């Protein structure tokens, strides 16, 4: 039975500025342009002419992230408001959704989803989007499609937060925003909370997930809130498990899957390296604590009281070996961590095509994980 969203149905027809663009530092990035054009559209000749007229020599692109984020030689940052590929939103009306703001000063919001038909409180599934900490948004159609399917097939309230993006806002800004979104959600658990949430969400059955960069955020949240002091920050909210979908980890020593990654991969080595160079603090290596959980300056994980964690990897993903090693090291510490590998799948297969057979298999694995409160079988 279909239902109508209480808010936000028109959002996908509007041009939404990605988070963080309005907060750019003038050093070293001194100009920001936002292109609010249709999805997959090129930069217009008029815009190029404007840029050329502002300088004696037209600046050139020095970093290009999927045609969505362009960094110019003069420090200017150009962002489109949507992905470089056109994807229709498949909303059959069985899930309702709305947007909410969790950090007004920074203009950061999240999108909330819930199944229309429900007869009890539902588990909560956080989803932090990917994009190498440089691109992506909760409003993008591929993210919308994935979250609609999550809510419908998991029978869950889905919370999809945005976070500040690099290079305007370098790490750990995105990680801090991920924590702020979870703390905002925890603040809704009381009598003064948003009834749209409180009448549907079971605040004692929360699962934190993210794909790629969002998976990295999930790791850092597991560390921050994996202690008695951390849990006290969340009040009545109880995190039952974490799901890291092809987490975006790095390190100065190449893994085999990184070294052998083909250039035509969806996430190839040049793009992977570019994301880290643009998102980490200036001068940092990929052994920085934000990128490498086992780097020389990263916090020790032995004392972390880790909730059950499911790590999802793709057999053809550049990040496959690093994620498998991450899970193996945590298991060696006695942590409840399981790995689910999808043979032949590339990075982000579940958002590239949420209706593929592999995506359906992932949904079944996620549902088992949630329904059993963190079992891997």
From TrEMBL:
One of its GO terms (molecular function) is hydrolase activity. The active site is at 212. This is Alpha/beta hydrolase fold-3 domain-containing protein. The gene is LOC125537150. Residues 1-25 are annotated as: Disordered. InterPro entries: AB_hydrolase_3 (IPR013094), AB_hydrolase_fold (IPR029058), Carboxylest/Gibb_receptor (IPR050466), Lipase_GDXG_put_SER_AS (IPR033140). Residues 126-350 form the Alpha/beta hydrolase fold-3 domain. It comes from the Eukaryota.
């Amino acid at each position: 039975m279909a239902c109508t969203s209480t808010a936000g149905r028109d959002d996908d027809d509007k041009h939404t500025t990605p988070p963080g663009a309005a907060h750019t530092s003038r050093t070293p990035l001194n100009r920001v342009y936002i292109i609010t054009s249709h999805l997959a559209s090129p930069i217009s000749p008029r815009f190029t002419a404007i840029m050329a007229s502002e300088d004696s020599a037209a600046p050139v692109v020095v970093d290009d992230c999927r045609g969505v984020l362009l960094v110019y030689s003069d420090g200017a940052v150009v962002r489109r408001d949507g992905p470089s590929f056109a994807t229709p939103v498949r909303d059959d009306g069985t899930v309702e959704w709305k947007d909410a703001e969790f950090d007004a000063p920074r203009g950061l919001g999240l999108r909330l989803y819930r199944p229309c038909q429900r007869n009890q409180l539902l588990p909560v599934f956080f989803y932090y989007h990917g994009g190498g900490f440089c691109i992506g948004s909760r409003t993008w159609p591929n993210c919308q499609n994935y979250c609609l399917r999550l809510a419908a097939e998991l029978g869950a309230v889905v919370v999809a937060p945005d976070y500040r993006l690099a290079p305007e806002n370098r790490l750990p800004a995105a990680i801090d925003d991920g924590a702020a979104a979870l703390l905002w959600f925890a603040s809704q658990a009381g009598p003064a909370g948003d009834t749209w949430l409180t009448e549907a969400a079971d605040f004692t059955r929360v699962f934190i997930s993210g794909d790629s960069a969002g998976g990295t955020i999930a790791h850092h949240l597991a560390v921050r809130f994996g202690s008695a002091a951390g849990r006290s920050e969340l009040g009545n909210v109880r995190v039952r498990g974490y799901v890291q979908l092809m987490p975006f980890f790095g390190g100065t020593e190449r893994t085999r899957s990184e070294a052998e990654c083909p250039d035509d991969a969806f996430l190839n080595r040049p793009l992977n390296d570019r994301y880290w160079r643009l998102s980490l603090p200036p001068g940092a290596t990929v052994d920085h604590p934000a990128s490498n959980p086992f780097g020389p300056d990263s916090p020790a994980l032995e004392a972390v009281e880790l909730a059950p964690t499911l790590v999802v990897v793709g057999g053809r993903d550049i990040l496959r070996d690093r994620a498998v090693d991450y899970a193996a090291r945590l298991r060696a510490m006695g942590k409840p961590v399981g790995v689910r590998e999808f043979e032949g799948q590339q990075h982000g297969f579940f958002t590239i095509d949420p209706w593929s057979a592999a995506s359906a298999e992932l949904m079944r694995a996620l549902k088992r994980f949630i329904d059993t409160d963190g079992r891997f079988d």
